[in-house]
Amino acid sequence: MLRVYVEAINTPGAIPNFEDAWNVSVKKICADAKEAAMRKYSAIMMSELKGRLPLDGGDIRKSHDAAFEECQNEVMVQTKGLLTNTVEDCLDEFKVR
User: Fold this and answer.
1) Is the pTM value of this prediction over 0.85?
2) Domain count, the chain
3) Which domain holds residue 58?
4) What's the count of helices (H) and strands (E) in the chain, helices before strands?
5) CA–CA gap between residue 11 and residue 70 (Å, rounded)
6) For residues 73 and 6, what is the distance between their CA atoms, to the nearest angstrom?
7) pLDDT of residue 16
């Protein structure tokens, strides 16, 4: 947030805005949390399914549900205290991916 604010101060004609700086910071935190969760989800699923395929859909779904819940909780921990729509959007994007 400080970096965005300092850039605004140093840009001729720009008006520093704490709200904009905060929103950029929140988006960065959310994006980093989402990417980390996606990497963790992939690693969990690879280890869960490695050597066990083919499986029926129910077994795969159980593995998915457990991995997804763990990773979603991780996103929520990393974004704790950021009560904004950006966090909800981040979780929605993670769910879709």
Assistant:
1) no
2) 1
3) 2-96
4) 4, 0
5) 42
6) 33
7) 65
